[in-house]
Every structure is written in structure tokens, then in C-alpha cells.
């Protein structure tokens, strides 16, 4: 550690001995550097702060009715694309910077200048929508114009993007609706042509082919069973009718007491019976009038019986052997039942025959109808899919129109400019004080480095120890310089020159710093003296 300290002291002594190189370096670097820093043109920065409010009252009201759009994502997307080439070109046109370029190369420099010097940063935390826009330029008016144009582009693009998206969505939906409408019409035409082509062989729409075949067989089975039951009842009724017919012993008496067969004597017999009843109420059976009425009544009954017998004989000759059945009320009821059952059996036979023909027809088409039915199902399925998509697109169009109307009524994004841009009065740069300090440190560092380098190139022993190490010869003593050699005066003069040089440079540095640190006190007075 002691050796390191001794070596550092030796280096410092060598630098001090070669301090004239520090003077040379500082006078070559510092005044020139300070002058260059002083000559740097002033730059002006214009800044604006805007707050983006994404909390709209319509958002919860329109939830589920319109398409939800995340405004925060939209704002972040617009911030990322704000410095795109089209936006920068638009800013140059809005601020008339494009007219300053005479060539394409100059215009590209302007675009690069905007892209590099426009600063967009988010302030107030990650979840805050507070943005700061700033731009630096040599002309304060240009800086203000660029920031103002940047705000305008940002707000208009953000609000216009919703309208552009809505218009694009409407155009897309209109195109798709027209396309699906044509597809739906084509599907309807194909389905209609198919039904017209196979109208005579297509099964009805109540079920599929096998369902209809099974239903027809079930109905045929049921109608055959019902027909069998009706025939059994008919046979039973006919058997009962035959038994009752054979049990008739006195058809004449049944006919006499039944009005189902009309004769020419029925009205006269009825009148005579009424007259006889009236006479019997007034007279006895021996009364001549009563006897005459009974005689006439017996004669008419005999004539009536003869007429009925003739009718029955004539009926028997024509094959109507059961005519006596209508002479009895019971037989008449049985006959009516038989007639009804015969009609029912005939009707059931017709229905059974129809079902049997249907089954035969379906069975004859068993190799054709399934293919036709499958094709029909495919056509119906395609038609339903197209129809559902068409209706869905119509619903989406209504939703898009509602969202567009809501966006026209009130935007879900509100811009609040907290700090509007202003034309800067004081320059924001360059940071001359910092640059002066950097140039000073650089000049001094170069001088020290040059002195150290020269002390190593042409070293000077500053102590007996250093000389002993360099020569390898032990030193037993040293002799101080004589005043007659004037070495002390020479070293003193060099020290004074070094201090005066540094003092002058320090005064120059203070003057430069004061000139820019107090512009109102120094620059204004100098301008007053120069421009009286």
C-alpha cells in the first residue's frame, strides 16, 4: 500500500513538473469549447397535457345492446400509431413545414426531425389517462404549431376511428347481407325446383319415408282389425235377424198392429174404429149401429189382410223373403243395425283398400324415396343455415346501427386539455451550464493526461528514492540547489504563470456562465449597448 501511495505521489509530481502541458491544453480546448457551446442555437420546447376520459354514461346503459369496445385499448393503439408516416406528413401540412422543403431530401429531414423530437409520455401512473405532448425546435412558433397540430391529429384520429370503423362495419355487413340474400334466393330456388320436380313422389312433410311407411302399415293393421270387428257384429246381427224371422208365427197380426206397411184401407179402418168407439160409449153391443159398425170393420180388415198378403206374395217372388221383419219394432231395429253395419263394413273396406294401396306405393318406392328424401333434407339444411346466417347478419346490422347512433349522439371518449400548448418565451436548451462544465472537465482532463504522458516519456526524478529505484544505485545524500542558479525563482515563476492562466480561464468560465445564467441582466444590456 505504501508503494502504491509513493507511486501516486511520483505521478502527481511528474504532472506538476510538466504542468505547462496543462496550460497549453486548457487554452487550446477550453476557450474554443466554451465558444462553441455559447454559439449553439437556442431551442424552444412547447408542451401540452391532455386527459382522456373513457368513462361514459352510455357504456352501462348500452351494455348488451351494442358491440363493446375497450376505449383504453383504443387510446393506447392511437398513441402507438400517432408518429406514423401519414400522421407526420399531415402535421407538416398543418404547420406549413412542407413548404420549407425544396427537395425530397429536405422534406425527409423535416419528417425525421418531427419523429425524433416529438415526445409523448404518459404521466400520473399506469392506469391514468393523462398524456403529455412536447416538441423542441429552434423556432418557438414552430414548436407551438407542431404541438397544437399533434393534439388535433390525436383527437380527430381517435374520434374518427370510431366512425371509420362503424362505416367499415356497415359496408362489410351490407356486402355480406347482399351476398347471403343472393345465396338464400338461390337456395330457395333450388328447393322449389326440387319439390316441383319430385312433387309426385315426395312423401308429405309429416315424417320421413320409413316413418310414413310404418304409419301406413299401422293404420292398415288398425283398419283391418276394425273391419274384422264390424264384420263380426254384422254377422251377429244377421244371425239374430234370421232367428227373429223364423219365430214369426202370425205375420198378419203383426202387420195389423204395425203401420210400417200402408194399405188403401188404413184411413177408413181408423175412422171406423173411432166411430165404433164412440158408439160403444153410448150404446151396447146389441145396438144395430154398433153391430153394423163391427160388420163393416171386419169387412175392411179382411180386405186389408188380403191386400197385404198379395203384397207379401209379390215380395217373396222378387226375393224379399224378410219383408216380414219390418212388421215388428224389434225386427226394424235389428234391420237398421244391419244396414248401418253393412255401410260401416263397406266404408272400412274402402279405407283398408286405400291404406293397402298406400303401403304398396311406398314399398314400391323404397329404393327411390330415401335418396330423394336425403337430398331434400340436405337442401333444407343448407337453406336453414343460409337463412339463419342471413337473419344473424341483419341483427348484427341493427346492432351496428345502434352503436353508430350512440357514437354520434355522444362519444365514449372525452378529451380534456389540462395545459394547452403555448408559444415558449424562454429557451429550453441547450443545457449550456452543464455543457460548460463538461468542456471544462474535458479540457483539464486532457491537460492532466498530456502532462502525465510527457512525464512518462521524459521522466524527471523528484526524490532520491525515485532516483535510486531508477538507477539501482543507493543514494546516501542530496545537495540543495544554490541560489545563484536561480532555480527557485524559475519554479516560482512557472507556478505563478500556471495560477494566472487558470485564474483567467476561471474568469472566462464565470463570464460565459453568467451571460447565459442571467440573460435579463447581461444579455439585455449588451443588446442595448449594441443596438442603442
Quick structural overview:
The protein has 532 residues and is mainly alpha-helical.
Count the beta strands: 4
| Quaternary state of the chains | single chain
Count of distinct structural domains: 3
The ordered string of helix (H) and strand (E) elements is HHEHHHHEEHHHHHHHEHHHH
Helicity level, as a percent range? over 70%
Characterization of this structure:
The chain has three domains: 2-40 and 430-530, no CATH class; 44-179 and 400-419, Bacterial polysaccharide co-polymerase-like; 249-327, no CATH class. A hairpin with a 6-residue loop joins strand 2 (119-123) and strand 3. The longest helix is centred in the first third of the chain and has 58 residues, at 140-197. It is built from 17 helices and four strands. Helices cover 71% and strands 5% of the residues. It has 532 residues and is mainly α. It is rod-shaped, with a radius of gyration of 65 Å. It has a four-stranded antiparallel β-sheet with strand order 2-3-1-4.
Write the layout of secondary structure elements.
Layout: H1 2-17, H2 20-39, E1 44-53, H3 58-61, H4 71-80, H5 85-94, H6 104-117, E2 119-123, E3 130-137, H7 140-197, H8 209-246, H9 251-256, H10 266-282, H11 288-317, H12 329-364, H13 369-409, E4 414-419, H14 432-457, H15 464-471, H16 487-517, H17 519-530
Antiparallel strand pairs: 1-3, 1-4, 2-3
Helix pairs in contact: 1-14, 2-14, 2-16, 5-6, 5-7, 7-13, 8-12, 10-11, 14-16, 16-17
Amino acid at each position: 500500500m505504501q508503494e502504491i501511495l509513493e507511486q501516486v505521489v511520483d505521478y502527481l509530481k511528474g504532472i506538476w513538473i510538466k504542468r505547462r502541458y496543462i496550460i497549453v491544453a486548457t487554452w487550446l480546448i477550453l476557450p474554443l469549447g466554451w465558444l462553441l457551446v455559447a454559439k449553439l442555437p437556442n431551442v424552444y420546447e412547447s408542451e401540452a397535457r391532455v386527459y382522456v376520459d373513457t368513462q361514459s354514461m352510455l357504456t352501462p346503459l348500452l351494455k348488451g345492446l351494442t358491440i363493446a369496445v375497450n376505449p383504453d385499448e383504443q387510446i393506447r393503439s392511437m398513441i402507438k400509431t400517432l408518429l406514423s408516416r401519414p400522421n407526420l406528413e399531415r402535421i407538416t401540412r398543418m404547420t406549413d413545414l412542407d413548404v420549407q422543403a425544396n427537395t425530397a431530401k429536405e422534406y425527409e429531414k423535416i419528417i425525421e426531425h418531427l419523429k425524433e423530437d416529438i415526445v409523448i409520455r404518459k404521466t400520473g401512473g399506469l392506469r391514468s389517462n393523462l398524456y403529455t405532448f412536447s416538441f423542441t425546435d429552434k423556432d418557438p412558433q414552430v414548436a407551438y404549431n407542431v404541438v397544437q397540430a399533434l393534439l388535433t391529429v390525436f383527437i380527430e384520429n381517435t374520434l374518427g376511428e370510431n366512425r371509420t370503423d362503424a362505416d367499415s362495419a356497415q359496408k362489410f355487413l351490407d356486402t355480406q347481407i347482399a351476398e347471403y340474400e343472393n345465396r338464400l334466393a338461390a337456395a330457395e330456388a333450388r328447393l322449389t325446383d326440387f319439390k316441383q320436380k319430385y312433387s309426385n313422389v315426395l312423401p308429405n312433410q309429416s315424417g320421413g319415408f320409413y316413418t310414413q311407411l310404418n304409419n301406413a302399415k299401422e293404420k292398415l293393421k288398425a283398419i283391418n282389425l276394425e273391419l274384422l270387428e264390424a264384420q263380426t257384429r254384422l254377422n251377429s246381427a244377421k244371425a239374430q235377424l234370421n232367428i227373429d224371422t223364423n219365430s214369426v208365427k202370425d205375420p198378419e197380426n203383426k202387420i195389423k198392429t204395425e203401420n210400417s206397411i200402408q194399405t188403401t184401407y188404413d184411413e177408413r179402418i181408423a175412422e171406423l174404429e173411432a166411430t165404433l168407439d164412440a158408439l160403444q160409449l153410448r150404446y151396447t153391443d146389441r145396438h144395430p149401429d154398433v153391430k153394423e159398425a163391427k160388420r163393416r170393420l171386419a169387412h175392411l180388415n179382411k180386405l186389408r189382410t188380403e191386400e197385404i198378403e198379395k203384397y207379401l206374395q209379390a215380395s217373396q217372388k222378387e226375393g224379399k223373403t224378410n219383408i216380414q221383419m219390418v212388421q215388428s219394432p224389434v225386427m226394424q231395429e235389428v234391420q237398421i243395425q244391419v244396414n248401418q253395419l253393412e255401410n260401416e263394413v263397406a266404408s272400412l273396406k274402402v279405407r283398408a283398400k286405400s291404406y293397402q294401396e298406400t303401403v304398396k306405393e311406398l314399398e314400391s318406392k323404397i329404393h327411390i324415396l330415401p335418396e330423394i328424401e336425403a337430398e331434400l333434407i340436405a337442401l333444407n339444411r343448407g337453406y336453414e343455415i343460409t337463412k339463419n346466417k342471413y337473419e344473424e347478419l341483419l341483427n348484427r346490422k341493427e346492432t351496428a346501427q345502434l352503436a353508430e347512433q350512440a357514437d354520434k349522439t355522444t362519444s365514449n371518449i372525452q378529451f380534456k386539455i389540462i395545459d394547452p400548448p403555448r408559444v415558449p418565451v424562454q429557451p429550453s436548451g441547450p443545457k449550456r451550464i452543464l455543457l460548460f462544465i463538461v468542456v471544462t472537465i474535458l479540457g483539464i482532463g486532457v491537460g492532466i493526461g498530456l502532462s502525465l504522458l510527457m512525464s512518462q516519456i521524459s521522466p524527471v526524478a523528484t526524490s532520491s528514492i525515485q532516483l535510486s529505484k531508477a538507477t539501482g544505485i543507493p543514494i546516501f545524500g542530496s545537495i540543495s540547489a544554490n541560489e545563484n542558479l536561480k532555480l527557485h525563482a524559475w519554479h516560482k515563476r512557472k507556478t505563478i504563470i500556471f495560477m494566472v492562466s487558470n485564474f483567467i480561464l476561471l474568469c472566462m468560465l464565470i463570464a460565459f456562465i453568467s451571460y447565459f445564467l442571467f440573460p435579463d441582466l447581461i444579455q439585455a444590456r449588451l443588446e442595448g449597448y449594441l443596438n442603442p
